[in-house]
Amino acid sequence: MASLASPSRRKQQPPALSRSALKARNALVLEHLPLADAIASATARRLFPLVEREDLIQVAREALVRSAPRCRAGEPAGPYLRRCITGALQHHLRDRVRLVRISRREHEKGSCPLGHISLDATADGEPCMLDQLAAPEAEPAISEAMHGLALEQLVEQLPAAQATALRLTVLEGLSLRQAATQLEISCMSVQRAQKKAIAALRQQLAGGG
User: Fold this and answer.
1) How far is CA 121 from CA 11, 44, 74, 117, 128, in A?
2) Angle at 196 between CA 198 and CA 202, to 5 degrees
């Protein structure tokens, strides 16, 4: 019987592992299985009763199996696998989980007003919500300083990543997505850098150094 998978889907399948690579992967999976279960269980406890522990454990274990072959020889596998598992759980929560509990009756109607839509999702040719999300505005005192004579003196004292994020989002008025695309990093990284820069500027303006 012919496979129903589309050609594009078949191309996404990872290459088959050699026997030695498969053995190494299985060893890593067995070694770090308690880590995956612990991360999933901690997430389930934090979000109880909105998520099922068994579902998160399945997501965490799948992420562990997928990520284990990408571990670099000679480097500790634990930190890398922890990041991969945590990222997979975050994506699952973002895309698959309703963080507002809706009654079964409303679900069965199929007209739930609180349906979850990913910020990256597009509909009817409209730009996604993330593209329309403007960067957070700086405080008035900081904005004035940024556009005043003390601009370079303040910004030059910041780490490069923070200074760049601040210039793009405050001076040039780019959105988080636009700044992230230009810097080739995630939107959250831009936002974190901007927040750190604003906190440092606030301290400087207050005379704290």
Assistant:
1) 23, 25, 39, 7, 5
2) 35
Note the CATH architecture for domain 18-96: Orthogonal Bundle (1.10)
C-alpha distances (whole Å) from 19 to each of 13, 77, 81, 127 are: 18, 20, 21, 46
CB atoms within 10 A of CB 37: 17
DSSP state of 92: H
Is this structure's pTM higher than 0.85? no
Distance between CA 137 and CA 9 in Å, rounded?
41
Domain ranges of the chain: 18-96, 140-205
Given its phi and psi angles, is residue 184 left (phi above 0), alpha (psi -120 to 50 degrees) or beta?
A: left
Residue 81 confidence class, pLDDT cut points 50, 70, 90: very high
For the 140-205 domain, the top CATH level (class) is: mainly alpha
Q: State the pLDDT at residue 3.
A: 46
- Determine the Cα–Cα distance for residues 22 and 29; give it in Å rounded to an integer: 10
**In this structure, what is the dihedral angle of CA atoms 154, 155, 157, 158, given to the nearest 10 degrees?**
130
